[in-house]
Amino acid sequence: MSWQYSPGGRPFACPAWARSAALAWLAWLAGGAAQAAVSENLGVDVIAMSLGNAVTADPPGINSIHFNPAGLARLQGDRRQDSFFGASIRPQSTFTQPAGFEIGGWKEDPLAGSSTGKVRQSIYLPFHGPAANLQAAVGAGLGLSWNNPGSPWTFATASYVPMAVGFERPDPNDPGRYDGKRVILQRLVYLSPSVGYKYSDTLRFGVAVPIAHQGFALDTDMRMPNKLLGIIGKLQDGWCGSGNPLDELGFGLCGGGQTGRLRPFNRAGSMRFDVSAPFDPTLNLGALWEPTNWFGAGVVYQTGTTTVLTGRYEFNADPMLPAFVNGMYNSLLGPIAASMVGMPTYIPPTQSGNATLKLPFPDHLQIGFKLKPIERVQLNVDANWTDWKKWTHLTFQFDQQIELLKMARMFGQTDPSQLVIPREYESRWHYGYGLQLRLTDAFTLRFGYEPRKSSVSRETLDLIAPLPDMTIKSVGLAYQLDSGMTINAAASYASGKYNIPADTSCNLNCTNFFNVIYNPYAGLDVSGVTRVRYGGISISQPF
């Protein structure tokens, strides 16, 4: 049996058995496996935003370049697309001291009971660097496509941002400053030569070569609430008192004076990185199958790269550690003890130079389906997989040994010309869902829902990447003019909470003796929420 719906006399037939099977398949996906993501696909395209990024089987115009380049073969004539976006990310965290808290004899962390404050947005300007203190991150994109009437070939290029996270904490006393006063991770595709080929009326293929600028910036204060530092500080307080004449014959614990007294909760210094890769190409391969007017399927595979970013670094040391080192080397036995654990002989106030960072850009696979139970209603569902497991750690290579990092040799950090920041992210699947209602021939309404279980697990979450499990809800609309111009608009809201009890994430709050890089909130419970608001408008028209 079959049924038929014919608005305006236009036939639209769908076999009942096929419709039932497809709806059952969609319901199975809705209760499917775990979802996972970081920051990919948040603001690439206005249409995709409004449909939960579930557009692989119905690629969005020129931005098919990203979501499925086979969709380019559906475009006719020459078209131009202008896009405008705005976004804000608002991470907030609270720090709580649990019962039994102690770091090397110190039982009161001054950050206990505090919360992070206002956040501003930051973006990375190619060939310039970070631009900060923005109420919202704003940007624009341009896409062009060319198709000769009747030709199966369509060529295109576009600029867009497939990945972006950027924020700063303007308050110099913000407790979050120890894990990112400013953090920017941004990938900007500025050129993407692409081609779509119409193999038949039902099957299309496409290839795109996105060429991107990758930028990364990190500016953070540093503190090291470590048990050994706490124990030495307590020894200093007991041994030195108002002065100990025997100290110079010992290990020089008092030689640095009050300035050289070790305090596990004091700021030890700061570090700043600004690195980028101006030319980083990848490859997108897509296929689109539309055997009927009520069903379609699509797939896209986006290759990754091992991006090499270069730029500058700067380490600043507060007086505490330099004064402590100086006191030890001005004593009789201090130099012997210091050399045994690899401590530096001198820590300069500032060290700067050239840095290199290998930052893998992950592979991505997306499979999607669309179903029209009736002609003016379309359901989309996509399954996404991104290889975030490549992010085991971030390694910064410096052009010299960093004296401040030599202090970490006793904790197993053997090479002070490198800084290794553990990540240990995960690669899993997540789904996106979209509903499109064509209310009239000119006006379309869209809704999107995308539950994302973060690839940043609770065991690896920190304030540099405050991206917990998040739910994204979106709404959008489209209006098509008689001239062929189409105006699309969308708005999205994402939010997610996290609760990291003490000794849960060794990127954040572990108290293990050797977890000195980097656990700035050792022993504290950290909880919070991350909210992301973003929206955009695009105008597509013939030219």
Describe this structure as you would to a colleague:
There is one protein chain. This protein is mainly β. It is built from seven helices and 26 strands. It has helices at residues 16-30, 46-50, 64-67, 227-240, 320-329, 334-340, 403-406, and strands spanning 2-4, 13-15, 79-96, 120-125, 129-134, 137-146, 153-158, 160-168, 182-191, 194-198, 203-208, 211-223, 267-281, 284-289, 295-302, 305-317, 350-361, 364-374, 377-386, 393-398, 418-422, 429-438, 443-452, 470-480, 486-500, 525-542. Strands 3-6-7-10-11-14-15-18-19-22-23-24-25-26 form a 14-stranded antiparallel beta barrel. The protein is elongated and about 95 Å long. The two termini are 46 Å apart.
Strand content: over 45%
The number of helices is 7
Oligomeric composition of the shown chains: single chain
Helical content stands at: 10-25%
First-residue to last-residue Cα separation: 46 Å
Give me the count of strands. Answer: 26
Structural class: mainly beta
Let me know the largest β-sheet. Answer: 14 strands, antiparallel, barrel
From the alpha carbons, calculate the radius of gyration and give it in angstroms. 28 Å
Taking strands numbered 1, 2, ... along the chain, how are they ordered across the largest sheet? 3-6-7-10-11-14-15-18-19-22-23-24-25-26
Q: Which ranges are low-confidence, i.e. pLDDT below 50, for 5 or more consecutive residues?
A: 1-14, 17-37
